[in-house]
Amino acid sequence: MTTQQFECAAAKYHAAAENAVNAVAEQYLPKDSSVCRAARYSLLGGGKRIRAMLVLAACELLNGDYDAAQMLAGAVEMLHCYSLIHDDLPCMDNDDYRRGRLSCHKAFDEATALLAGDVLLTEAFEAAANASEKTDITAKAAAALAAGAGSRGMVLGQELDLAAETDKPDAAQLEKIHHFKTGSLICASVQMGAACAVTSEEALAALSLYAFDLGLVFQIVDDILDVTSSPEVLGKPVGSDAANGKVTFATLYGVDGAMKKAQAINEKNCERMRAQFGAKAEFLIAFAQDLLLRKK
Question: Fewer CB within 10 Å: N-end or C-end of the chain?
């Protein structure tokens, strides 16, 4: 896949992801509610839409029901947005900015932001449940979303991350934290896309492994950018990890060492995808390579 072909495909998926997010906002977040207005503020405030794009790309890879995948793409972004709102709260990371503007609790207030996160979490599952009339699709997708987000997924990762603030993790522990905190919801995304198709266990396992490695690389690059980038470029504060004495991949390996680790993981990940899916995986391989080189 050439750079131009990838950029065209990525633009297509991103536009479809934005449409999916707009659709779930209109359907599940009424404008006459102050809590829902806060939820809409955060949900519609931009973002990479990585998880939504992965739902759609996994569905197309497996020749699935694209209409169902579009609603599921919106659902996973709702859930992801809830996690960002709660992450920014004073009791968690206490960040004032997100995606280049005030975080939800700063734009509104702490209680409203808390409830905005709650409503996004809840409505994500209604959106998933209504994604298709085919109950095998919706049941599998909702189960994947719950597993990726809950006590065996993202929330577990957040719990481990909080514990690591006092008990400094080593490399293996840090990878475990982000396997769950970052990787689990990314894995849920490809599994939700796969739920829209008839999928073999082998293909699902390969996609899941791809997603977890993608999440790990994403986090390593995030840690590097927290050291090397600026708030203007990232749209959120930088340097807070170092200021708080937090252990990251950048502090463990140094910036150059962390990037080498990310490159090695990514190369192996792309090789596995080629072996499993061949040319059909071109976009997902290029997507992984692009995330490795991202600047924000």
Answer: C
